[in-house]
Write a structure and sequence with these properties.
Layout: H1 16-22, E1 32-39, E2 46-47, E3 55-57, H2 59-72, E4 76-82, H3 99-111, E5 116-121, H4 143-160, E6 164-167, H5 174-184, E7 191-198, H6 205-210, H7 231-242, E8 246-250, H8 256-265, E9 270-273, H9 276-287, H10 293-306, E10 311-313, H11 317-324
Parallel strand pairs: 1-3, 1-4, 1-10, 4-5, 5-6, 6-7, 7-8, 8-9, 9-10
Antiparallel strand pairs: 2-3
Helix pairs in contact: 2-3, 2-11, 3-4, 4-5
Bound molecules: ligand PBG.
């Protein structure tokens, strides 16, 4: 009898109770954030073809969806809006009675302090060219003019009831300018979620259907290059110095290494966004019976937490919360 193993890691895998006892990653519904879409001028909630199970909401159905999420234990709601009219400068974004502030008022009124109400501060839902900012005469995205608009938008969102504004545009200086504008407006309590390492990703494809964004060109001059990791630390240092309360890595699955790196260095909580294309990839594969949907969803969420996310934005938030709860 030689070479019987002395070390048997399988001992701790033997029963569900043993596995639960030593599990290194916990999944808690309070860390989940559900992104929600609302569209101006529609009479009925409308399915998004490339995101099966996700809807463009009306104001009343948005309210209902927010309630349902909170009842399931979801910790936050991130609201995106599609305006009826888009133009070159995204004017509808700066209307205090525009669709996004209106939606935020409804959601804030519905959920109170039972969940964190978040808003997307970006122009791509509002511009007819689909870029995240306004364009300079030469056609490039004008950083500083865009940042001024983000700051004004953030104030409108805070006044409408957002507890936290999400700066997703990847413009330089957006956090500092927004913090200053919020403070000037007496909104020093409103938190800033900075999209710190947001990559120029193919996985945003279905989202562009959800917000009807017909992008001309690409976002390579402002979103990060997928080949870079260390640059995320530079963005992190800037966002922290500018006053970000939370930082985000996006997308999640293809960037788990970046998430780990950011989580190791951040002095503020770290969020990760499991984006539309990650959702669609699992849904489409599962619909063909090629993977076990429930297990795949749980596994991706676990991976994102394990890589270091304190907060996870996911279109599966409600279903995952129900399963955890
Ligand atoms: C920009 C924004 C995008 C997403 C969230 N905020 C799109 C983009 O940068 O092109 C994508 C989210 C997703 O794909 O689920 N407002």
């Amino acid at each position: 009898m030689t070479d019987r193993p002395t070390h048997r890691p399988r001992r701790l895998r033997r029963t569900p109770a043993l596995r639960d006892l030593v599990a290194g990653t916990d999944r808690h519904p309070g860390h989940l954030v559900l992104p929600l879409f609302v569209k101006e001028g529609i009479a009925e909630p409308t399915p998004i073809t490339t995101m099966p199970g996700v809807l463009q909401h009306t104001l009343p159905s948005l309210r209902k969806a927010a309630r349902e999420a909170v009842d399931a234990g979801v910790g936050g709601l991130m609201v995106f809006a599609v305006p009826e009219r888009k133009d070159a400068v995204g004017s509808a974004a700066l209307d205090a009675d525009g669709i996004l502030p209106r939606a935020l008022r409804e959601v804030a009124d519905e959920v109170g302090d039972a969940a964190v109400v978040m808003s997307d501060v970006c122009l791509d839902e509002f511009t007819d060219h689909g870029h995240c900012g306004v364009l300079a005469p030469d056609g490039r995205v004008d950083n500083d003019a865009t940042v001024e608009r983000y700051a004004a938008m953030a104030v409108l969102h805070a006044e409408a009831g957002a507890h936290c504004v999400g700066l997703s545009g990847m413009m330089d200086g957006q956090v500092a300018a927004t913090r200053a504008a919020l403070d000037r407006a007496g909104r020093e309590e409103t938190a800033i979620l900075a999209y710190t390492a947001k990559y120029a990703s193919a996985f945003y494809g279905p989202f562009r259907d959800a917000v009807e964004c017909d992008l001309r060109g690409d976002r390579a001059t402002y979103q990060m290059d997928p080949r870079n990791r260390t640059e995320a630390l530079r963005e992190l240092a800037l966002d922290e110095a500018e006053g970000a309360d939370l930082v985000m890595v996006k997308p999640a699955l293809c960037y788990l290494d970046v998430l780990r790196t950011v989580a190791d260095h951040a002095r503020v909580p770290v969020a990760a966004y499991q984006v539309s294309g990650e959702y669609a990839m699992v849904e489409a594969t599962a619909a063909r019976g090629w993977i076990d949907r429930e297990r795949a969803v749980a596994e991706t969420l676990t991976a994102v937490r394990r890589a270091g996310a304190d907060v996870v934005l996911t279109y599966w938030a409600v279903e995952a919360a129900r399963r955890m709860g």
